[in-house]
Amino acid sequence: MTNTRTVRGKVFLKMNMKTLLKRLIFYWISSFVLATLMYFILWLIMPQHYVFGVLYRMFVYHVEFPLQYIAIPCFIYGIIATLLADKFSNKNIPGQILLTIIIIVSTILLSSPFGGALWHYHDMKAGHFPSNWVSKMLGEGFTWGLELGWLIIGLSIPYNIIGSITCFFLTKKGVELYNSTNQ
Known about the structure:
The chain is mainly alpha-helical. It is built from six helices and no strands. Helix 1 (about 1-45) packs across helix 3 (about 65-90) and helix 1 packs antiparallel against helix 6 (about 160-175).
């Protein structure tokens, strides 16, 4: 009896891990492709090509290197969406919308420090290289990312609105394609 349960548990875990990996890769690749595509479409039509929000007197490294700043939240979104996909599949539409909001807020909170660190890295590459570069990049970068990342995302209209809607449908599609109970 115990051996049968152990074997079944290992098979289920293996199937579940395979499903989770497929779902994670789907979320990473599709979110990055869609976010990049939408960025360049908006870049063509936005005034001065500013798709991302810009603060007064801010160096616009996120405008200069957009794909790097797009990759960070897509990576974090992929992890969070993968972890919450089964909960998402069990909810009705209002519950799915609420869970999408949780995914978006979590993605912003977790990716902003890394975006801040990347901004400091680009700032150092531009010639602002201090002697304490590691503590500056990690300490100030993470802090500034948490303090200002949400504001920059909030100012990135219509990119952030389109991204939020896409997040809902992309999470839903990942659940439909890789439902762990069907595999």
